[in-house]
Design goal:
The structure is a single chain. The chain is α+β, with helices and mostly antiparallel strands and 525 residues long. Helix content is 39%, strand content 19%. It is built from 18 helices and 19 strands. It has helices at residues 48-65, 115-124, 141-151, 153-158, 165-174, 181-187, 200-205, 211-215, 233-239, 253-262, 267-271, 320-329, 340-355, 394-421, 439-449, 461-473, 480-487, 501-522; strands spanning 4-10, 14-21, 26-33, 45-46, 73-80, 84-87, 106-107, 161-164, 227-230, 246-252, 273-278, 282-288, 298-302, 310-316, 364-366, 384-386, 428-432, 452-456, 490-494. Helix 16 (461-473) crosses helix 17 (480-487). It is globular and about 65 Å long. The termini are far apart.
Length: 525
């Protein structure tokens, strides 16, 4: 009987489950959606019950699709977006919504309701900020928790357990509060490199002195890929898996992708390689044996992705979602059908074949439509479009879409420059996520950043990284890095086109100038 593991990835709108063998081969997968509520601008919420139901549906679907005997599944692990789940002491959902409805008890990662609280926390200049790029982001959990305490006092009094979404799934599966070093180090200001990770003086300073009790936070954490214990009888029945299936401690989704992309590299390889997980948003993961402070880039986080290494995490909050938004804004974009990004890629390829880059020379897009996560760490940054004309033709959409994609790629170059200024020597991107399926975007990242871009042999690097955590957790491998060494492989590599260098160098200078002009204009608001 083969040894199989299941990886579950919970994204922004669906749960995906994949069945892997011990060599990293994906045997089957399935997906199930869940809803997002937007009761107010900058508010985005989920239901934890609905997410768990989607997880169970996806796991059962993957096992059925692969015609797999459940007894073959030795381990399972979860990754998820860095969303906040609120429960009472009995584990029942308690609202995190202005609606007061207990169904909506998950604040989504991209929810920006706590921007004011994030600014207040940044103003404290507490030393925990040294490990978040010196600026607190509203996408992290501490400002969201402070917002809840201030704006939902009745709900706050009812809370008894609050977890990152990944840790909620582990708790739901095992009945154990097994908090991942990854989640609380990266999103809760836990300092994993210190003996006492929770900084009580900081929590008291920002008004969250009761957080550890209110959230039932454990004093210590568990590394990715260690065992959180077996499934409970109830969760085993819901997932359709054997009671002896072991749950591996999981990770935030982007960090799981980082394991799938970087887990088989040594220190010199890590110094020159960036993992990029790009879909709705984009995350940029770099690891080093020594801590590196990078202004505007999250980290350095110890043990938060690869054991024994420090992590720097950059990101762009809207990339794939921004391309969707551009198509939704334009009348022509709303009539392209279900595969509209492929239609745009074909039209751009035809335009480039006919006139190279001249068709977009005077059109520039600064892609900060949902703030700038890195390297400026400015959630109030906004998008800018320069060069629009009184033109609503299909050609105008092709130009605007391509200029937006170029702006997104230049944002990655901006992050790489910040990392290299701090001691990295990034010359290679390993790319996974939805963008890896687009030959247009893959080539754009190579050309805009002037680096090689490699794609994994197994296209879904996030699921693969979580499969490594599951394989280590159930004992198929002694560690998550040993699992990654055996289960991950890189496929094809795309090189930057020499003929494109001058165009992208000029565009990058304009990109940086647009940031300066955008900042100057913001003074008049």
């Amino acid at each position: 009987m083969p040894d199989l593991v299941i990886a579950v990835d919970v994204g922004s709108s669906s749960a995906r489950a994949g069945v892997f063998d011990a060599g990293g081969l994906l045997l089957a997968r399935a997906e199930a959606p869940f809803a997002t509520a937007h009761p107010k601008t900058d508010h985005a919420e989920h239901s934890s019950d609905e997410i768990w139901a989607a997880v169970c549906h996806a796991v059962r679907g993957a096992v059925a699709a692969g015609h797999i005997a459940a007894e073959e599944v030795k381990g399972i692990a979860f990754d998820a977006t860095c969303s906040l789940v609120t429960l009472d002491r009995g584990g029942r959902p308690v609202t995190a919504s202005i609606t007061g409805d207990d169904r909506w008890n998950v604040i989504m990662w991209g929810d920006h309701r706590a921007a004011a609280e994030a600014d207040e926390i940044t103003a404290t200049r507490h030393r925990v900020l040294d490990h978040v790029g010196n600026v607190m982001s509203p996408e992290m959990e501490i400002p969201k928790l402070l917002w809840l305490k201030r704006h939902c006092p009745n709900a706050w009094r009812r809370y008894g357990l609050m977890l990152d979404l990944t840790d909620y799934l582990t708790w739901k599966a095992t009945g154990r509060v097994a908090v991942s070093t990854c989640t609380v180090t990266c999103k809760w200001t836990y300092l994993s490199h210190e003996r006492h990770g929770w900084q009580s003086d900081f929590l008291s300073q920002v008004g969250l002195d009761d957080l550890q009790d209110r959230a039932s936070l454990p004093a210590s954490t568990l590394p990715i890929g260690t065992s959180a214990g077996p499934l409970t009888a109830e969760s085993a029945d819901q997932l359709g898996l054997p009671r002896g299936c072991v749950v591996g401690v999981g990770a935030i989704d982007a960090h799981a992708g980082g394991i799938g992309m970087l887990g088989n590299l040594d220190a010199p390889g890590l110094n020159k390689t960036l993992a990029m997980i790009a879909g709705t948003s984009s995350c940029h993961m770099a690891a080093s044996p020594d801590p590196r402070q990078v202004p505007g880039v999250w980290g350095p986080y110890y043990d938060a992705m690869l054991p024994g290494y420090w992590l720097n995490e950059g990101g762009q909050s809207a990339t794939g979602s921004l391309l969707d938004h551009i198509l939704d804004l334009h009348a022509e974009g709303r009539s392209l059908g279900a595969d509209r990004h492929a239609v745009m890629a074909a039209q751009i390829e035809a335009a480039l074949t006919e006139s190279r880059f001249t068709f977009v020379e005077d059109l520039h897009v600064l892609p900060d439509f949902h703030g700038n996560r890195s390297p400026l760490a400015d959630p109030e940054s906004v998008g800018v479009i320069h060069g629009l004309r009184l033109d609503a033709s299909p050609t105008s959409l092709t130009r605007l879409y391509f200029a937006t994609a170029v702006g997104i790629a230049l944002g990655t170059r901006h992050i790489i420059d910040a990392l290299n200024d701090a001691g990295y020597n990034i010359a290679h991107i390993r790319l996974t996520g939805g963008h890896a399926a687009s030959s247009l975007l893959v080539q754009l990242y190579a050309d805009a950043a002037g680096v090689a871009v490699s794609l994994p042999e197994q296209p879904d690097g996030v699921l693969l990284g979580t499969a490594c955590a599951a394989a280590a957790g159930c004992g198929l491998y002694p560690s998550v890095t040993a699992a990654a060494a055996a289960m991950t492989r890189i496929g094809r590599t795309v090189q930057p086109a020499p003929a494109a260098r001058d165009f992208f160098d000029r565009r990058y200078r304009a990109f940086l100038m647009m940031h300066e002009h955008r900042r100057a204009l913001s003074q008049f608001v």
